[in-house]
Amino acid sequence: MVTIELTEGWRFFDAEGDYDLPVSLPFDSVSTMVKAGHAPEPYVGDAEAALRWIAERDWVLCRSVELTQTDVELVLSGLDGVVGVSVNGVDVVTADNAFRTWRVDLSHCARLGDNQIALRFRSVIQAAEARQKAQPFYIPYHKGNCPIANINMLRKQQCDFGWDWNTALAPFGVSGGVSICSAMKTRIAHLHVAQAHHDTEAQSVSVTVTAHVVHGEGAVAEMRFAGRRREAVVTDGVAQAVFFIEEPQLWWPNGQGDQPLYSLEIRCGAAVVMRRIGLRRIEHVTVKDAKGTGFKFRVNGRDVFAKGANWIPADALHGRIERDKVRDLLQSAVDAHMNMIRVWGGGRYEPDWFYDLCDDMGLMVWQDFMFACNLYPADRAFLSNVAAEVVEQVQRLQHHACLALWCGDNELLGMLHEFPEARANRDRYLVMYDRLNQTLERALFEADPQANWWPSSPSLGPLNYGDAWHEDSSGDMHVWTVWHENMPFEAYREMTPRFVSEFGFQSFPSMDVIRRFIAPEDRNMASPVMDAHQKNAGGNARIVGTMMRDFRLPERFEDLVYLSQVQQGLAIKTAVTAWRALKPHCMGTLYWQLNDTWPCASWSSLDYGGGWKILHHMAARFYAPVLVTIVPQYGRDVFKLINDLSDEVDVSIQVAAVTPKGDVRPLAEVSVTAMTHKAFEVLELERDLLKQDEFYVFTWQYRGQHEGQNEGGEGGDIHAPKPFKAYDLIDPHIVIETNELREKIEITLAAEALALFVTLDADQPGRFSANAVTLLPNMPQKIIFVPQDADINTNFTVQHLYKATLGGAK
Ligand code: BMA
């Protein structure tokens, strides 16, 4: 019998009998109801609240299936909710973990001919409440994040009941699939791939196959790897083979080398699985030193500064996630020189194709287990459910070259201080926390003894329950003093962290996103609809209030939106450049957050839909492999040079002063050879060298060898030693010229005076080669725009700091 994929032909109806719709898998409840016209589009205006009733009801998903044999198994994956599964009226399993696969023997209830399968989805809101009530005492969840209660009781995406950037739509459904297969067929349950790197010349890859062999079919496993073939007898369900690879082609993170992948094919009888394996060794190095304990990744023996961002689910509704859109988001990360993303613990373990993309693109993955900002039950049933989840996910993902680290959770340690119940009875909640954490650690190492493990993010280290939000000596930090504690951006410079896995600053989404989701009459920072698209209490006020520190306040809505993005870019640039300048003391920055789940004000650098906010354009520059940055000190400015390439490069640097009129006055020039293992000082200037109204402008060019190839590049930056509002900028009269080339448009920008953060906006989707650039008189700049649809005429508008803050209503 061939496996029957039960994709089409399902009925989805509510217990009240009001709705009855056809669906195919995968699906989520909310997108399905919206598509059928039974609910408004939740991302537009303030419609979201009107859809919560969907999750307050019980629903049924059912269909029939014809069987020609009865010794079959039902395989269910990604059942998102608390789901009672029955076949022909017989209950076969209650699936209560969206991150597990359930395999159920149907031989006692299947029949020849027609069979009825029913999946009863208990209201997720009620199921969560019932589970909370059944606990011996209350287990707190984060009320500030989650308007719907008790998400911590459910093993599903924790941001589904709301987050400080997400809708609270409580979607449920099936994110995986349902199938029926013969119980009497050999299948490969899972693989384990272990790599041993003897030296760069030789490696061995050992493959362990766990298979269920039936009637001796496939009793010998056939394995092919890198052009070699082995046979191994399956003994007690396990077969093993070792492959030696001389002169291996190593897999490297983006920016360090290529990403060659070798194919691995395993056959047991008719069962076949294929994988692509990148040969690399990723060590997570945490070594004590004079300051505390460091935190870094060493790839193939080379210490790599981790540059990246945090990944949240690609859409608030999983039924809307598409591989091509996700690929585009990840490509944007790569295009901004990122080499690591953190799959954050309040979302989901992503599908296989996500990690395949990361393997291809050289994006290392820091993978959290899916626990975030709540406390969790510690009863046996919950913990054994979690252990099964961990084993399954680790077995599924461990072979990926991209996988760099498994981390226990997001910010659970902070919750021990956050919740009054936990403060009042710390012993109890700390022990519960530790039971969960130990469960994760044990299950991880059971599934992959070689895994890199970190107990929690942020954390000062194993069994250290100190404050990794403020203490910068050890481990990874989440630096939220600027956004959540309202400190100035300079506060980033006062810390000397080892690795920062979260820090962020919000902005509004770009105007083209606002135009699609917010009606013209609601385009005001304080309108109820703008509030509805801001999930962090007080967030809009924080964005606008912070502006008053550094900028003259814009008058028009579009200018505020633009300036919010400039400000966000400057915040994150301040942090990243300051911490890159600490290399190797600090060895990584992952800002919060790469993407958005829906159109909202948030910390993301990519808009919902994938467009680049100003921050993302700035990231492409501040994450460049060779970077010069200013570290201001008392009365002096120190220029530091950072080189993240694998080899030294020769760098020339020119520093000048520039006035608002655009008059340039050279200050210094240096040429140096940039070492790779540490950031170092190349120049120091007395601040008095600058006149009252002058900024620094600096440029650099580099040349050298990288991976045996000639490599070169250039960069440039501007630095304002005083708040921008202190400068009397003048109208730069920017002139735009466009030149249509094949499938792209070349735009030339020219200015008559200094123009800051010059940003183009197109009236159709597409990608600019750069934005938020600095223009000087007589130095026109070319920017390329690649439209999504080359056949549409594109119109451009230009924004810049003078226009937004001093240009009045012009
Ligand atoms: C971090 C994250 C999220 C949150 C973000 C912004 O701590 O882990 O919980 O969305 O802060 O507040």
Per-chain topology:
Layout: E1 4-5, E2 10-14, E3 20-23, E4 27-28, H1 29-35, H2 53-56, E5 59-67, E6 72-77, E7 79-80, E8 82-87, E9 90-95, E10 101-105, E11 113-122, H3 124-134, E12 173-174, E13 178-182, E14 187-199, E15 202-212, E16 220-225, E17 228-233, E18 238-246, E19 262-268, E20 271-277, E21 282-285, E22 296-299, E23 302-304, E24 306-311, H4 323-335, E25 340-343, H5 352-361, E26 364-368, H6 380-397, E27 403-407, H7 412-418, H8 420-424, H9 426-447, E28 453-454, E29 477-478, E30 500-502, H10 511-517, H11 528-532, H12 539-550, H13 557-580, E31 588-591, H14 614-622, E32 626-633, E33 636-643, E34 649-658, E35 664-674, E36 680-686, E37 695-706, E38 709-719, E39 735-741, E40 744-750, E41 755-762, E42 766-768, E43 773-775, E44 781-787, E45 796-799, H15 801-805
The chain binds beta-D-mannopyranose.
Organism: Celeribacter baekdonensis
Catalytic activity: Hydrolysis of terminal, non-reducing beta-D-mannose residues in beta-D-mannosides
Protein name: beta-mannosidase
What does this structure look like?
The chain has 810 residues and is an alpha+beta fold. Among the domains are: 4-182, Jelly Rolls, CATH 2.60.120; 187-278, Sandwich (Immunoglobulin-like); 626-724, Sandwich (Immunoglobulin-like), CATH 2.60.40.10; 735-807, Immunoglobulins (Immunoglobulin-like), CATH 2.60.40.10. Helix content is 20%, strand content 33%. The protein has 15 helices and 45 strands. The chain has a 6-stranded antiparallel sheet. Strands 28-27-26-25-24-31 form a 6-stranded parallel sheet. It has a 4-stranded antiparallel sheet with strand order 1-13-6-10, with no helix packed on it. The protein starts with a strand and ends in a 5-residue tail after the last helix. The structure holds beta-D-mannopyranose. Beta-D-mannopyranose (BMA) binds next to loops. Beta-D-mannopyranose (BMA) is lined by residues 163-165, 372-373, 410-411, 478, 502, 592.
